[in-house]
Design brief:
Strand content: 15-25%
Order of helices and strands: EHEHEHEHEHEHEHHHEEEEEEEEEHHE
Structural class: alpha/beta
Strand order of the largest sheet: 16-15-14-13-7-12-11-8-17
Largest sheet: 9 strands, mixed
CATH architecture of the largest domain: 2-Layer Sandwich
Number of domains: 2
Shape: globular
CATH superfamily of the largest domain: Dihydrodipicolinate Reductase, domain 2
CATH topology of the largest domain: Dihydrodipicolinate Reductase, domain 2
Number of helices: 11
Helix content: 25-40%
Number of strands: 17
Distance between the termini: 26 Å
Length: 386
């Protein structure tokens, strides 16, 4: 039996808990640290709520719950704090993305895991989805020759969630490069096979989504109005944002995310090209196309339909269970989570300054171990939703 300790049972982690239990039905919740036990329990199926214990601090959870592994599903600005606390335990950890929202937190998290014994599975389902796996296999087999360029897009059909729920709080999310693009920049770097080293970015704020309380009567009917979403001056999530990407192996890329798309306007995927071919896939259309440049032939492949996060959630859960049992290494390690955050922070800085920005690279995880003291007894002070 696996005993899982949970720090912040948000909706995302409640969903993943179901995936963990589907992967290993013996998994049990050893205890939960969450500021709102009633809301946390309500996120679980009724038949899974009995006997769940709640603790005030991580230290209490560790001492009394005796977990075999930990999972962090707090809101974004607390991921690094509790990731650092988990690093000190040496237990396997499932950590929600983004793994940090500031450079200070990201560097502290990196130092914490430089000498940590526990393996981390970062919540990056796209990189382990069926389509990404198929694309990676073809790229590694030389289907397009040496990879030269990648174009990735995310036209989000549910963008209102970033303005009509807690995601509107820019102080928590720090914007949609960190909240949303962290998924995409991770899978792109995974497919390219190299980290992002330089970024030039831009962002639009307030052209489509506006704070209703700040608008004059009548307003502009081409805009969507919400409460307490901030302003471009005070900080708010983007209507859309884009980035030019330079990778360590010389590949160039472009990424764009748009949050006012609706219905069949949804697109999420990438086009990757080299001298010998062009590979294109889209998760919403659930298809991969390979065009070989030597002949006018297109290969079409489709994975199974109807999978959570395009099959990535189940694959992540299976990997986490295997990591806990000592049967596998993480398919989405802490290094991937940090590289994504460093790239997203560079994109955010570039959009604010109008300059190319060099991306912070990993140092402590690739250097001699550095210890970092942590306060694992600290309680969560803000609502736990991820």
């Amino acid at each position: 039996m696996i005993r899982l300790g949970i720090i912040g049972l948000g909706q995302r982690l409640a969903h993943m808990l179901g995936c963990f239990q589907a992967s290993d039905p013996s998994l049990r919740v050893a205890g939960i640290v969450d500021p709102d036990p009633a809301a946390a329990l309500a996120r679980l199926p009724e038949d899974k709520r009995a006997g769940i214990r709640f603790f005030d601090t991580v230290a209490d959870l560790l001492r009394e719950g005796r977990p075999d592994a930990l999972a962090v599903g707090t809101r974004c600005d607390l991921h690094a704090r509790y990731g650092i606390a988990a690093a000190a335990t040496g237990l396997p950890l499932f950590l929600e993305k983004p793994v940090a929202t500031t450079l200070v937190d990201a560097r502290a998290l990196e130092r914490a895991f430089a000498d940590a014994a526990g393996e981390v599975v970062v919540s990056f389902p796209l990189r382990v989805s069926a389509l990404a796996g198929m694309a990676k296999a073809r790229l590694d087999a030389g289907a397009v020759g040496r990879l030269e360029h990648v174009l990735a897009v995310n036209y989000v059909p549910y963008g209102n969630v970033y303005f009509d729920s807690w995601y509107r709080d820019h102080g928590v999310t720090q914007g949609l490069f960190l909240q949303k693009a962290t998924h995409d920049l991770d899978y792109i770097a995974h497919l390219v096979g190299a980290p992002i080293v330089r970024v030039a970015a831009m962002a639009q704020h307030g052209r489509v989504f506006r704070d209703k309380s700040l608008e004059p009567a009548g307003g502009d009917d081409t805009r969507a109005y919400f409460e307490r979403i901030g302003t471009p001056e005070t900080g708010m999530n983007e209507d859309a944002s884009s980035a030019l990407l330079e990778f360590a192996n010389g590949v160039q890329g472009v990424y764009t995310q748009v949050f006012y798309t609706k219905h069949h306007g949804a697109v999420r995927g990438a086009t990757l090209s080299g001298k010998d071919g062009t590979l294109r896939f889209d998760w919403y259309r659930n298809e991969l196309l390979l065009h070989r440049h030597a002949e006018p032939v297109t290969e079409l492949t489709r994975p199974p339909e109807g999978l959570n996060h395009f099959g990535g959630d189940g694959a992540l859960a299976d990997n986490f269970i295997a990591v806990i049992k000592g049967e596998a290494r993480s398919a989405s390690p802490i290094a991937a989570g940090l590289r994504s955050v460093y790239a997203c922070l560079a994109a955010k800085e570039s959009a604010a300054t109008g300059r190319f920005v060099a991306v912070q690279q990993l140092t402590d995880l690739e250097a001699p171990p550095v210890s970092l003291g942590t306060d694992s007894a600290s309680p969560i002070h803000s609502p736990a939703v991820a």
